[in-house]
Specification:
Elements lengths: L3 E2 L5 H17 L1 H10 L21 E5 L2 E4 L4 E4 L14 H13 L9 H14 L3 E5 L2 H16 L4 E4 L2 E2 L5 E2 L13 E4 L4 H13 L6 E5 L1 E2 L5 E2 L2 H13 L3 E5 L22 E5 L9 E5 L1 H4 L20 H14 L2 H21 L5 E6 L2 E6 L15 E2 H13 L2 E2 L5 E3 L6 H17 L1 H4 L2
Parallel strand pairs: 1-18, 4-19, 6-9, 6-10, 10-13, 13-14
Antiparallel strand pairs: 2-3, 3-4, 5-15, 7-8, 11-12, 14-15, 16-17, 17-20
Helix pairs in contact: 1-11, 3-9, 4-9, 6-7, 10-12
Length: 445
């Protein structure tokens, strides 16, 4: 998702990387064997692209609480957090009890509506200020169905999105429109965090005659490097969408965990027409949802003639409905959400402090953040496509943090898990500081 440069001009970095890779190979022989076995039945040994890493991916055996344990016998503090979905950690006792009870007393899927789905839907609507809501199975599906609603409601096709954005496996806009995106001819890509530029794109597209069905944006680009949107940008996009009669869709698949009402709760007057959800809200199970204005969501009302069909065998599966509801009401309450966001903000401040004067910085909001390393030492990144990342230095960081017992994504994204001890957060800050000192000839400006 992030622009990068290959390590071809820095022999010092190449030597350090080569040494780190040698240690990586020595530490993870079982993972190598698992990868080789997987490659016999899956292309490249992979079925989830984001998990592929060179020289091969590390395989995990199990997780417990805030930790994961590799097949090679290493214990890690989990900072991957299943890319924000593992907010509750691994086998949280409250959720484990809810899932076990549901399996024993309710069953998996009943092929019918249940009391649980109505209760869960009402809780989400109340918490996020939605008039109506529908469930699905992932954030990708949530965004696809939200756009389907917008197109049916407006009777238009074109959708304005933003460079660097990611809204699911077939809705990726890191460097324009990805080759495997759906509806490849219906996207209009605008600049992120550029209020005037975004407004111009939206209005120009509306004037071309085809009109704009929807404007889809993240309040923080997650896969695109954890780049927060400015309030001015979001409000300008909202105003332009309203001006041209487009449906304003806010993707909170990753960010709905940031405070009691997600990131939209931090921007007065944002008031999206539709919001999309996923990740943590299913209590760790596959989950998606979308909702908002009653008139827009009414396009799915099966009591009305000509309604859109939005089916899915597992949309209202018993486990996700119960685990999601219990998670929201008994574990990640509104008060806990606000408190946890504060924990993340304090952590981010410390990381930014120790990286001053170096090529490294951290961006993000609350408990979802990302490392960036640039030769220019850019501190405040507003558009990820305008910076070039040093992937060689990020690879060194990734491997050395694993040696310190931290499991983070190779690209540098961190999603904190509830219950991670403060001592581990502080230890990570110290490990970052030590990394910068150890490699000051590579990292100091």
């Amino acid at each position: 998702m992030v622009a990068s440069v290959e390590p071809v001009l820095d022999p010092k970095a190449a030597a350090v990387l080569q040494a780190a890779q040698a240690r990586f190979l020595e530490r993870n022989p079982t993972s190598l064997q698992i990868h080789q076995d997987a490659s016999r039945s899956m292309p490249g040994g992979n079925t989830r692209s984001v998990l592929h890493t060179a020289p091969f991916p590390v395989s995990m055996a199990r997780g417990h609480g805030y930790q994961v344990f590799s097949e090679d016998g290493h214990t890690y503090t989990d900072f991957v957090g299943e890319f924000t979905a593992a907010l509750y950690g691994h086998s949280h006792p409250t959720l484990l009890a809810a899932i076990t009870t549901t399996l024993q007393q309710t069953g998996l899927n009943l092929g019918a509506q249940t009391r649980a789905e109505a209760a869960f839907a009402q809780r989400i609507c109340t918490r996020f200020g939605l008039a109506r809501l529908r469930f699905c199975n992932s954030g990708t599906e949530a965004n696809l169905h939200a756009l389907g609603a917008a197109r049916a409601f407006t009777k238009r096709r074109r959708v304005v999105v933003f460079r660097g954005g990611y809204h699911g496996g077939v809705l990726s806009f890191a460097h324009g429109v990805a080759a495997n995106n759906v509806d490849v001819d219906d996207w209009v890509v605008a600049p992120y965090n550029d209020a005037a530029g975004a407004r111009k794109v939206i209005l120009d597209e509306a004037e071309r005659g085809k009109g704009v069905a929807a404007v889809l944006v993240e309040a923080m680009q997650g896969a695109g490097g954890c780049i927060p949107a400015t309030k001015a940008f979001l409000l300008a996009v909202r105003a332009a969408a309203r001006e041209v009669g487009a449906v304003f869709v806010l993707d909170e698949v990753m960010t709905s965990r940031m405070g009691r009402r997600g990131l939209q709760g931090a921007v007065d007057g944002l008031d999206p027409d539709l919001t999309t959800f996923g990740k943590w809200l299913g209590g760790g199970l596959a989950f998606g949802a979308f909702g908002g204005r009653e008139d827009v969501m009414a396009v799915f009302d099966p009591t009305k003639e000509g309604a859109l069909a939005q089916s899915g065998t597992f949309n209202n599966n018993s486990l996700a409905m119960r685990a999601g509801l219990v998670g929201m009401t008994e574990v990640f309450t509104e008060e806990v959400a606000d408190e946890f966001k504060g924990v993340g903000e304090a952590f981010l401040r410390k990381l930014r402090d120790v990286t001053v004067g170096t090529k490294a910085t951290f961006t993000g909001v609350g408990t979802v953040i990302s490392l960036h390393i640039t030769d220019a030492g850019v501190r405040d990144i507003v558009r990820i496509d305008e910076v070039e990342e040093r992937d060689d230095l990020k690879d060194i960081f990734w491997m050395e943090m694993m040696e310190e017992g931290f499991w983070i994504t190779r690209r540098g994204m961190i999603a904190l898990i509830l219950g991670t001890p403060k001592s581990e957060l502080d230890r990570f800050v110290e490990c970052v500081k030590a990394f910068l000192e150890r490699h000051k000839d590579l990292m100091v400006l």
